[in-house]
Amino acid sequence: MAVIVIIARFIMGGIFLVSGLAKISDPGRFILTLGEFRLFPEVIVPVTAIWLPWLEFMLGLCLFVGILQRTSALMLACLNALFAVAIVSVIARGIVVDCGCFGMLADMFGLPDMADMKAVIRDAIFTGLCMIIFVSKSRTLSLEGYILRGAKRT
Amino acid sequence: MKQLVREATVIIGLSLVIALLYNAASPTGIKLNRKPMPASQESIGQVR
Predict the structure, then answer these.
(1) For a tag site, which of A6, A38, A49, A55 has the least CB within 10 Å?
(2) So what's the ipTM on this one?
């Protein structure tokens, strides 16, 4: 189980670190994408577009290095579930839009970036992986575990 | 549960502060306090 948790942590942490950085470096593009979703009032869109990539980046970093591991896993699971709901709502309303998941990296590396059922399934898998990390109490190869072990020794 | 909420608050608060500071300092940052253009100027702009 510990191995699965470590792999899940590095995968999810890595994905959200990279996707967060990609959105941080191009805020103009992400604000347009969020606007196209037509989910929030226009007043909230700029603040959300500024804040959400940083939240993703921080949660990814926490998972990757293994600090506040369970909380960040739960928050990422909720975030992915929200993304899935947002994409389903866009599909249901018949709006064709980029999902904005990987920002400018989607163009650079040809990553899938459309808000379609594939994106929903991907978000569901991500949610599952995050829930595995949340449920597990494993602290192997994590900064949190290292600190806790050090505290016990002293 | 209490610990989860506390840690989540820390992460949300910290990310919000960093995001706003970075946005204010970045040359590509989004202007949040942009005032709407007066209607008269808007119409002049459209005519031009």
Answers:
(1) A38
(2) 0.83
